[in-house]
Specification:
Keywords: Cell cycle, Cell division, Cell inner membrane, Cell membrane, Membrane, Protein transport, Transmembrane, Transmembrane helix, Transport. Helix content is 36%, strand content 18%. The protein contains four helices and seven strands, in the order αββββαβαββα. The N and C termini lie far apart (90 Å).
Length: 139
């Protein structure tokens, strides 16, 4: 049934469904992003030492404040270092190990981890530190 009025065509694109989908995706990414981070938090000591060249094939042994030890992304006990480290280094074809220990750890514990790394046959051990802030260097 014709009413006699002319219907006009809509010349604009309705973007409301697009905005809805984008907002849902944004919420999903905001919720899942913190879960995607791996590794552990290690606050390394600060030094005024200059940067050194690091071998990309080197292995990073991290020890956090709760004394958890990780080799790259794998957690293990301190007693397992001497046993597993040679096999890991052999597969990576690396010789250097970088020890990244939290600054709140007791000196004796860090030295025991270093001794375990030495027991594994590693001769080159580097200590990972963070460059100090420019303000603290002026003192």
């Amino acid at each position: 049934m014709m009413t006699g009025q002319k219907t006009r065509l809509m010349s604009e694109i309705n973007v409301t469904p697009f905005v809805d989908v984008m907002l849902v995706l944004l919420v999903i990414f905001m919720v899942t992003a913190p879960m995607m981070s791996s590794g552990m938090k290690v606050e390394v000591p600060q030094t005024t030492h200059e940067r050194m060249d690091i071998d990309s094939r080197g292995l990073v042994v991290s020890v956090d404040a709760s004394r958890r030890i990780m080799i790259n992304d794998y957690q293990l006990d301190a007693s397992e270092i001497a046993e597993r480290l040679p096999k890991i280094l052999e597969s990576m074809k690396g010789e250097e190990v970088y020890l990244k220990a939290d600054r709140t750890l007791p000196y004796g514990f860090v030295m025991s981890v270093m001794a375990s790394i030495r027991e594994a046959g590693v001769e080159k051990i580097g200590m990972v530190t963070e460059p100090s802030a420019p303000d603290s260097q002026k003192r």
